[in-house]
């Protein structure tokens, strides 16, 4: 049976949370987390450095490629056989970031928009979208010129152990 094109799949009005773990398959999540009221406080070097530190320390799930925009962040994360659910991990690193960053006026939106990716083709498609986000917002002319992006852990789809 052929796979349904993504543009024909039903769209959610509100984020549905809860990541389903399937034995023998990598669990890779694409997520978008916004600032409260879409206030543009994220795109600076101090925030970027603090996020990288927090993501490296929050090992229950692994952070892969990411792009930090002025009012939201896109990223890919995957399961590490931890007992900590994805929702708990997101809450944890957001709270750790807020403790380290120490700017109480800079708040995160409560919800986020996570999607479990099916395969490497879907991952590559989402990454191209994320990578070009600074261009679409006319912040840079080339994706590599955007300074607030990176990769904490490299994703490999060849096995169920997806981080090398």
Properties at a glance:
5-stranded antiparallel beta sheet, 5 strands, alpha+beta, Alpha-Beta Plaits
In a few lines, what is going on in this structure?
The protein contains four helices and five strands. By secondary structure, the chain is of the alpha+beta class.
Describe this structure in words.
By secondary structure, the chain is an alpha+beta fold. The protein has one domain (24-151): Alpha-Beta Plaits, CATH 3.30.70. The protein is 27% helix and 19% strand. The protein contains four helices and five strands; from the N terminus they run βαββαβααβ. A five-stranded antiparallel sheet has the order 4-1-3-2-5, with helices on both faces. Helix 1 (45-57) packs across helix 2. The longest helix has 16 residues, at 86-101. The chain is globular, with a radius of gyration of 16 Å.
């Amino acid at each position: 049976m052929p796979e349904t094109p993504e543009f024909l799949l039903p769209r959610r009005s509100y984020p549905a949370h809860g990541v389903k773990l399937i034995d023998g398959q990598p669990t890779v999540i694409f997520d978008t987390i916004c600032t409260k009221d879409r206030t543009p406080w994220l795109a600076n070097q101090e925030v970027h450095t603090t996020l990288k530190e927090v993501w490296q320390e929050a090992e229950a799930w692994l952070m892969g490629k990411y792009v930090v925009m002025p009012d939201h962040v896109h990223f890919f994360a995957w399961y590490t056989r931890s007992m900590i659910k994805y929702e708990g991990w997101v809450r944890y690193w957001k709270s750790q970031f807020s403790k380290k960053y120490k700017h109480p006026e800079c708040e995160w939106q409560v919800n986020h928009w996570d999607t479990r990716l099916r395969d490497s083709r879907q991952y590559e498609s989402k990454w191209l979208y994320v990578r070009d986000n600074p261009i679409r917002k006319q912040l840079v002319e080339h994706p590599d010129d955007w300074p607030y992006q990176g990769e904490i852990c490299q994703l490999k789809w060849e096995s169920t152990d997806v981080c090398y």
